[in-house]
Specification:
The complex is a heterotetramer. By secondary structure, chain B is mostly helical. Chain B is built from 16 helices and no strands. In chain D, helix 1 (16-47) packs antiparallel against helix 2 (64-93) and helix 4 crosses helix 7 (294-306). Classes of the chains: A mainly alpha, B mainly alpha, C mainly alpha, D alpha+beta.
Chain lengths: 232, 542, 101, 320
C-alpha cells in the first residue's frame, strides 16, 4: 500500500484506515462494543440469579455455605494479580520493552492457569459432596469416620447449584479462551512485533482479560459470601 | 459505444478483480461478502418457503390428512427457525447493509474486514448445523423454544438446533459490531452524522439491537441446552424453576429482533422514497431519530408477549403502555414517507411499486400491533392466527417487501446489470396481492379464535384457510418470478449505467459495479443527503 | 503517528492493585458481619467500586475517547433495563392476590 | 354463526360485547389511517408522476407543525387503547368473590376438570348460565393455555404454579375449548367443549354425574392419608401450624417476610415445604413434590379453603 501513497504507512496499517491512530481507536472501540455483548451475555445469568434469589432466599443462603470461601477468595486474589501483570504487559508494549512484555505475559498465563487448577479442585469437591444438580443431586458430607452424612438443603438449592456451575463454568471457559489468547500474544511479543507504534493486539487482549476479572469480582461475593453468618 | 465503455469499466469492478473461487471464499471485500450472504440467505429463504408451502397445504382441510401431526409441527418449527435466524435477521443488514454502508459513508471497507468474513463463515456453520438438524428429522419446539417443552418433552435434536442458532447469533453480533465501529470511525471527510443517508442511520440502530440483544438469547438458549444435556435445571418447575423466566429472557432478545428485521427495511424505504421522488426526505431529523427511538423503546416492551403467561398484571401494564409508545415513531416514519412524495417527481419504475406495496402492508402490520398491545384485547388474540398475520405483515409484508425494493433499486449497482422492468412491476403486484390474500384472512381467523400451530382445526375455520392457502400460491409465484428474472439479469441483463435512477448518494457516484476499493478517489462530502436541487437539471441519469 | 495515548505509570497500577486487594479483604470481612437488609448492597457496593477501578485504570478508560465511555456506560445501563423490567414482573406478582395474574 | 364467511366468534359471556366493541374501536382507528395514508400515497404517486427523466421534486425539507401533529395524535389514540385495554384486562383478572370454583388440570393432551361437588369430566366443561365461574388451572407437564374464544378468555397453564380465570356465560350452547400454547404432537387435539346450561339443567347434570365426594371431601381424605393431620392439628398443639382459616390470611415467615396465603403459597408449602417457613416452627415437613398429583393438590387446596374458623368468616385479605 505504501508505494503509491504520498505519506509513509506503517507496515501494520490496513489499507482502509487513514492512519494508525484511527486504526487503534477503531480496534479499542470494537473491543469495548464486543465487551458490551459479553456484559449482556452474563447479564442473562445474573438476571436468573436475581430472580431465584428473590424466590428462594433461604436456599441461597444455605447453599452458599457449601461453597469454599478460601478457594473463591484465593482465586479472587489470583485474578487481581493477573490483572496487574496484564496491565504491566500492555505498558511494556507501549514503552517498547520486549522483556517486560514476555515476563508479564508469562506471569499472566501462570496466574490464569492457577485459577483453573483451583477451580478444578473446587468442582471435584462439589462432585464428591453430591452437589451437582440432576438425578444424582444428593448433598452430603464425608465425615471423619468415613461415613456419609446427608446435608439438608431447602428447595431451590438445586437451582443455586445449577447457576453456580453455569456461571463459574462459563467464566472458566472465558479464562481458557483468555489463556489461549495470551499464548498467541506471547508468541507475537517474543518475535518483537509490538512497540510504541503498534500494540493493538496486546491492548485489546488486555481489555478482554480485565473483563473476565471483573465478572469474577461480582461472582465471588454473589455466590460465595451470602448469608452473612459464616466465620473463617 | 456506451456499451463497450461500460464493459471496459466492469473489468475493474470488485466482481472481476481476481477471478476464482478461492478469491471469493477468502475475500475481505465487504461487497463480495455481501454477495456471498445474498446467495446463502436466498437458499435458506427458499427452504423456509418450502416449509411454508407444506404448512398451507395441510391447512387446506380441517382434518389432518396430508402430513402427520409430528411432521407438521416440525415443518412450522423449521419454517420459523430458518426464516427468523437464517433469513430475516441477516437479510438486509448482511447483504444490502454490508454492501452499501461503507460506500454510503465513503470508505473503502468496514472497519474489520476479516471479522466480516468470519461473520459469514459463522453464519454458514450455523446454517449447516441447521441443515444437519433438518436431515436428522428437524425439531418440533417452534422457533420460540419454550421450556419446559423444549427441555424435557421434546425428543428431537433441540440441543443441536440451539448450537446452530447460537453460532448464527454470533455471526449477527459480529456484523452489528462491525457496523457500529465503521459508522463511528470510518466516515469520509465531511460526512457528518446529519449528512448520513437514512439507510445508514437505520443500520446503525439495528446494529445496536444486535449487539445488545443477541447475547441474551444466546445465554438463554444455552441454559435450555444445559438443562437438556447436563441436567443443570434453571427453568425446571420440578425443582422450583420458573418457565416464565425463560420467556422474559427469550423475548428480551426476540422482541427487539423484530426491529432487527424491520428497521433496515425502514431504512431502505427512506432511501427509495427520496430517490424515486427525487426529493429531500421530509423531516430528515425525525426519521433518523425515530429509528433510534424504535431501537431503544424496542428493548422496553418485551413483556407484551407475556400478558396471559401468568406475568404480573402490573408488569403487563408497564409493558403495554411502553408498547403503545412504539407506535408513535413508526407512525412518524410512515407520515414522513408519504409527505416526501408530496410535490415530488415520482418515478413509475419498479422500485416505486415495491415501496408503495411496502407502505400498504407495513401500515396494516404496524396498526394491528395496537390490538395486541391493548392488554384486554390481547386476551382474545394471544397465540391465535391474528398474531401470525400481524407478524407476517411486519416481517414479510414489511421487511421482505423492503428487501425486494432495495434489491431492485441497488441491483444495477451490485451486479452492473439491469433486469426486466415489466416483469419486476408484475412481480411487485403479484406479491402484494398474493400476500394480502394469504395473511388478511388470518386476522379474521384469529379473532374467531383459531390458535396458531394447529395441525387440524374445526370446520367453520376452513373457508378462510382455503383463501389463505390460495393466496400463498400466488405469493410463491411472485417470489419465484423475481428469482427467475434476477437470475436471467445476472447472466444476460443489459449493462447498468453508474446511476440508472438519477439518484443522489455516494453509491451512485462510483461505477456499476464499484471497483474493489469502492471509489477511484477518496470522496469528500460537501452536501447533505438527498440534496436534489429543483432549479437546474442537475440530476444526470446514467 | 503523533499523540500516543498516555501511558499509565507503574505506580498507579500498583496502587490500584493494592486497593483491589484491600477491597477483597473488606468484602470478605463485611460478609462475616450481619448488616441485615444491607448485606447485599454492601457487597455490591464493594464489587462495583472494584469493577470501576479496573475499568478506569487497568482498562485505561480514563484515557479513551468520550465515545468509549458512552459505550461502557450504556452496556451497564442496558443490563439495568433487563433487571429492572424483569423484576417489574417478579416484585409485583403477589400484589393483586389472584394466582397467575 | 352460520355464515359461510364468519367474522366473529359466538358471543357467549358477559365480557364478549365489550371485547367486540374494543375490537371494533381499534379496527375503526386502524382502517381510517390505513385508508387515508394509502389513498394519499397513491394520489401523490399519480399526481406527481415524473414528467421528464430529469425532473426533480420541490425543495421541501419538513414541517415542525406537521411532525408534532402526527406525533401527538397517534400518541393520544394509542393511550386511549392502552387505557381501555388495561381496564378490561384488570376486570378479567379479578374473579368476583361469589364465583363458584372449578379446577382444571392440563396434561399432554387433555383437560381434566373437577367441579366443586366432585364431579369430574375430561375435555368437557359444563357450566351454569349466568353464574360467575372461577377456574383454577394447573399443568402436569408443559405449558398449556386454556382458551374459550366464545367467552373471550384465555390464560396460560404453567407447570409449577396455579393460574386463574373467570367468566360469566350468557348464552346457552356448546363452544370450543382450545389449547392455545403449543404443547407437542397432539397440541391441536387438545380441544374440548364448554357446555353452557340453565342452572336447573346444570344441577341435574351434576346429580347424574359420578362423584366420589366433593373436592373438599377428597382433600380431607388425602389430608388424613398423607398424615398431614398428625402435625397440622386443628388446635395449636401440633408440630406444624394450624391450618384453620389459613387461606387468604397473612402469614408471618421465619425470615421476617409476610406473605398472603393464596393458592400458590399453599401449593409451594405442600410441594416444597422448606421454601417458606412459618415463624415459630421448625423446617421438618417433608416435601411432597413427587408424591402428589396436580389433581390431588387441587383437592387438598379445596379442603384447606373449606377450613374456616368456627365463628367469623375469613378475612378477605386477597381482595383489596
Amino acid at each position: 500500500m505504501a508505494s503509491h501513497d504520498a505519506h509513509a504507512h506503517h507496515p501494520k496499517q490496513q489499507h482502509h484506515f487513514y492512519s494508525m491512530e484511527q486504526q487503534l481507536e477503531a480496534s479499542i472501540l470494537g473491543m469495548w462494543v464486543f465487551l458490551v455483548t459479553e456484559v449482556m451475555f452474563f447479564g442473562g445469568l445474573f438476571m436468573a440469579y436475581i430472580v431465584y434469589r428473590h424466590m428462594y432466599p433461604l436456599a441461597w443462603a444455605e447453599s452458599s455455605h457449601e461453597l469454599n470461601v478460601y478457594m473463591g477468595g484465593g482465586n479472587t486474589v489470583v485474578l487481581i494479580c493477573s490483572s496487574l501483570t496484564m496491565a504491566l504487559a500492555v505498558r511494556a508494549a507501549q514503552i517498547g520493552s520486549r522483556k517486560g512484555q514476555i515476563v508479564n505475559l508469562i506471569l499472566t498465563i501462570l496466574l490464569g492457569s492457577t485459577f483453573l487448577v483451583v477451580k478444578y479442585f473446587e468442582y471435584k469437591a462439589k462432585f464428591e459432596h453430591g452437589l451437582v444438580p440432576g438425578p444424582h443431586f444428593d448433598p452430603h458430607e464425608l465425615l471423619a469416620n468415613g461415613t456419609l452424612a446427608p446435608i439438608h438443603l431447602p428447595q431451590g438449592s438445586e437451582i443455586f447449584f445449577s447457576l453456580y456451575f453455569i456461571m463459574t463454568g462459563i467464566h472458566a471457559l472465558h479464562m481458557v479462551v483468555g489463556i489461549a489468547l495470551m499464548l498467541i500474544i506471547l508468541a507475537m511479543a517474543w518475535k518483537g512485533k509490538f512497540g510504541p507504534d503498534y500494540y493493538n493486539p496486546v491492548e485489546i487482549s488486555g481489555l478482554y482479560w480485565h473483563f473476565v476479572d471483573i465478572v469474577w469480582i461480582f461472582l465471588f461475593p454473589l455466590l460465595y459470601l451470602l448469608g452473612a453468618h459464616f466465620s473463617l | 459505444m456506451v456499451m463497450s465503455e461500460t464493459i471496459k469499466e466492469a473489468r475493474h469492478s470488485y466482481l472481476d478483480a481476481p477471478y476464482g473461487l478461492k478469491s471469493w471464499l477468502l475475500t475481505r471485500d465487504h461487497k463480495r461478502i455481501a454477495m456471498l450472504y445474498l446467495i446463502s440467505i436466498t437458499i435458506f429463504f427458499m427452504l423456509g418457503g418450502l416449509f411454508a408451502a407444506g404448512i398451507r397445504l395441510e391447512l387446506l382441510t380441517p382434518k389432518g390428512d396430508i402430513w402427520s401431526a409430528d411432521l407438521y409441527n416440525k415443518m412450522f418449527s423449521m419454517h420459523g427457525v430458518i426464516m427468523v435466524f437464517f433469513f430475516l435477521v441477516p437479510s438486509i443488514p448482511a447483504t444490502l447493509g454490508n454492501f452499501f454502508v461503507p460506500i454510503m459513508i465513503g470508505t473503502k471497507d468496514l472497519a474489520f474486514p476479516r471479522i466480516n468474513l468470519l461473520s459469514w463463515y459463522l453464519y454458514v456453520i450455523g446454517g449447516v448445523i441447521a441443515l444437519i438438524v433438518l436431515a436428522m428429522g428437524g425439531i418440533d419446539t417452534g422457533w420460540t423454544f419454550y421450556t419446559p417443552y423444549s427441555s424435557f418433552a421434546s425428543n428431537t435434536n433441540v440441543t443441536l438446533a440451539i448450537v446452530g442458532v447460537f453460532v448464527a447469533g454470533f455471526s449477527s453480533i459480529l456484523t452489528g459490531f462491525n457496523f457500529i465501529v465503521t459508522v463511528h470511525r470510518m466516515r469520509a471527510p465531511g460526512m457528518t452524522w446529519f449528512r448520513l443517508p437514512l439507510f445508514v442511520w437505520a443500520q446503525y440502530a439495528t446494529s445496536l439491537v444486535m449487539i445488545l440483544g443477541t447475547p441474551v438469547v444466546a445465554i438463554t438458549l444455552t441454559l435450555v441446552a444445559a438443562e437438556r444435556t447436563l441436567h443443570l435445571g434453571i427453568f425446571d418447575p420440578k425443582i422450583g424453576g420458573d418457565p416464565v423466566l425463560f420467556q422474559h429472557l427469550f423475548w428480551f432478545y426476540s422482541h427487539p429482533a423484530v426491529y432487527i428485521m424491520i428497521l433496515p427495511g425502514m431504512g431502505v424505504i427512506s432511501e427509495l422514497v427520496a430517490a424515486m421522488s427525487r426529493k429531500q426526505i421530509f423531516g430528515y431529523g425525525f426519521v433518523a431519530a425515530s429509528s433510534l427511538a424504535i431501537a431503544i423503546l424496542g428493548f422496553l416492551v418485551w413483556g407484551h408477549h407475556l400478558f396471559v403467561s401468568s406475568q404480573s398484571i402490573y408488569a403487563g401494564m408497564v409493558f403495554s403502555i411502553i408498547t403503545m409508545l412504539v407506535a408513535v415513531p413508526s407512525a412518524v416514519k410512515t407520515f414522513n414517507w408519504a409527505a416526501t412524495m408530496y410535490k415530488g417527481a415520482v418515478s413509475w419504475e419498479s422500485p416505486t411499486f415495491w415501496v408503495v406495496g411496502f407502505m400498504g402492508l407495513f401500515l396494516i402490520g404496524g396498526l394491528t400491533g395496537l390490538y395486541l398491545a391493548a392488554m384486554g384485547m390481547d386476551i382474545a388474540l394471544h397465540d391465535t392466527y391474528f398474531v401470525v398475520a400481524h407478524f407476517h405483515y411486519i416481517m414479510v409484508g414489511g421487511a421482505i417487501m423492503a428487501f425486494m425494493g432495495g434489491l431492485h433499486f441497488w441491483w444495477p449497482k451490485m451486479t452492473g446489470r439491469m433486469y426486466n422492468e415489466g416483469l419486476a412491476k408484475a412481480a411487485a403486484v403479484l406479491v402484494f396481492v398474493g400476500f394480502n390474500f394469504t395473511f388478511f384472512p388470518q386476522f379474521i381467523l384469529g379473532y374467531l379464535g383459531m390458535p396458531r400451530r394447529y395441525y387440524a382445526y374445526p370446520d367453520e375455520f376452513q373457508v378462510w384457510n382455503v383463501l389463505s392457502s390460495a393466496g400463498a400460491s400466488v405469493l410463491g409465484i411472485g417470489y419465484m418470478l423475481v428469482f427467475t428474472y434476477m437470475m436471467y439479469s445476472l447472466f444476460r441483463g443489459e449493462p447498468a449505467p453508474a446511476n440508472p435512477w438519477g439518484a443522489k448518494g455516494l453509491e451512485w457516484t462510483t461505477s456499476s459495479p464499484p471497483p474493489t476499493f469502492n471509489f477511484d478517489e477518496d470522496p469528500i462530502v460537501t452536501e447533505p443527503a438527498y440534496d436534489y436541487k429543483p432549479a437546474g437539471s442537475e440530476v444526470i441519469v446514467g | 503517528m503523533s499523540g500516543h495515548a498516555p501511558i499509565t505509570p507503574v505506580r498507579t497500577l500498583v496502587t490500584i492493585f493494592l486497593t483491589l486487594l484491600v477491597f477483597t479483604a473488606v468484602t470478605v470481612f463485611a460478609a462475616m458481619r450481619d448488616f441485615g437488609a444491607l448485606n447485599t448492597p454492601v457487597a455490591l457496593l464493594i464489587a462495583v467500586t472494584k469493577a470501576s477501578l479496573v475499568i478506569t485504570f487497568f482498562m485505561a478508560v480514563r484515557y479513551n475517547t468520550p465515545l468509549t465511555k458512552v459505550v461502557v456506560v450504556s452496556g451497564f445501563l442496558w443490563l439495568l433495563i433487563l433487571f429492572g423490567l424483569g423484576l417489574n414482573d417478579y416484585l409485583t406478582r403477589a400484589w393483586i392476590g389472584v394466582p397467575g395474574r | 354463526m352460520s355464515s359461510s364467511f364468519p367474522l366473529f366468534p359466538p358471543s357467549a359471556s358477559s365480557v364478549a360485547t365489550e371485547m367486540d366493541l374494543l375490537y371494533l374501536f381499534i379496527t375503526g382507528v386502524c382502517a381510517f389511517f390505513t385508508v387515508v395514508v394509502t389513498l394519499v400515497v397513491v394520489y401523490f404517486t399519480i399526481k406527481y408522476k415524473r414528467r421528464s427523466p430529469n425532473d426533480v421534486g420541490a425543495d421541501i425539507h419538513g414541517s415542525l407543525v406537521l411532525e408534532l401533529t402526527w406525533t401527538i395524535i397517534p400518541l393520544i389514540l394509542s393511550l386511549i387503547m392502552f387505557g381501555w385495554g388495561a381496564s378490561l384486562f384488570y376486570r378479567l383478572s379479578r374473579p368476583p368473590s361469589d364465583a363458584m370454583e372449578i379446577t382444571v388440570v392440563g396434561k399432554q393432551w387433555m383437560w381434566k376438570v373437577q367441579h366443586p361437588e366432585g364431579v369430574r369430566e375430561i375435555n368437557e366443561l359444563h357450566v351454569p348460565l349466568g353464574h360467575n365461574v372461577r377456574l383454577t388451572l394447573g399443568s402436569e407437564d408443559v405449558i398449556h393455555d386454556f382458551a374459550i374464544p366464545a367467552f373471550r378468555v384465555k390464560i396460560d397453564v404453567v407447570p409449577g404454579k396455579f393460574t386463574t380465570m373467570w367468566f360469566n356465560a350468557t348464552q346457552i350452547g356448546t363452544y370450543h375449548i382450545f389449547c392455545a400454547q403449543y404443547c407437542g404432537t397432539k397440541h391441536s387435539g387438545m380441544i374440548g367443549q364448554v357446555i353452557v346450561m340453565t342452572p336447573q339443567d346444570y344441577e341435574a347434570w351434576l346429580a347424574g354425574g359420578r362423584s366420589t365426594g366433593s373436592a373438599a371431601q377428597n382433600g380431607e381424605r388425602l389430608f388424613a392419608d398423607l398424615s398431614c393431620i398428625t402435625c397440622h392439628k386443628a388446635d395449636a398443639t401440633g408440630r406444624g401450624p394450624s391450618l384453620i382459616g389459613l387461606y387468604g390470611s397473612t402469614v408471618q415467615l421465619a425470615d421476617g417476610r409476610k406473605v398472603v396465603a393464596d393458592d400458590n403459597y399453599l401449593r409451594e408449602s405442600i410441594m416444597n415445604s422448606q421454601a417458606k417457613i412459618v415463624q415459630g416452627f421448625q423446617p421438618i415437613m417433608p416435601a411432597f413434590q413427587t408424591q402428589i398429583s396436580e389433581e390431588n393438590l387441587l383437592q387438598l387446596l379445596a379442603y384447606l379453603k373449606s377450613l374456616k374458623p368456627a365463628t367469623a368468616a375469613p378475612a378477605p385479605a386477597h381482595e383489596k
